[in-house]
Amino acid sequence: MSAPPSRGRLRAAAAILLAPLARAVGASPAAGHERFVARAFANRDRAIAAGDQAYGAVLVCDGEVVADGVSAVVTNADPMAHAEMQALRLAMARLGRRDLSGCALYGTSRACAMCESAAAAAKVSRLYHGRDAAGGQPPSAR
Hints:
This protein is an alpha+beta fold. Helix content is about 40%, strand content about 20%. It has a 5-stranded mixed sheet. Helix 4 links the parallel strand 3 and strand 4. The protein is globular.
């Protein structure tokens, strides 16, 4: 008797089998994420307009934007003012708590080790990056 297939293999098989159906109905892997991705990229444009690095982020809880993150590394002369860090700080201040369980962080690019570790410490549930909202994994303290 052979071992049962791993969860990852089952997911991959399901994705392959369901891909034609998803294409047929016009679904995208990032369906439902578009407005948050667009908002993160709008924040990136704000950073560029301010003379900063081209990064933006948005933190979402219960389907609502809680905080925007605009890179301020250059404009604030602060090496820790990454867009993701800005969004995390603002969300914690607005919500009055450090635990961001159930929230998702969208960024214009994959979070660096510092930002991913901060998201993990804040218990952010999911990280998404790029125009296609890739990822969707829980953060890890790498």
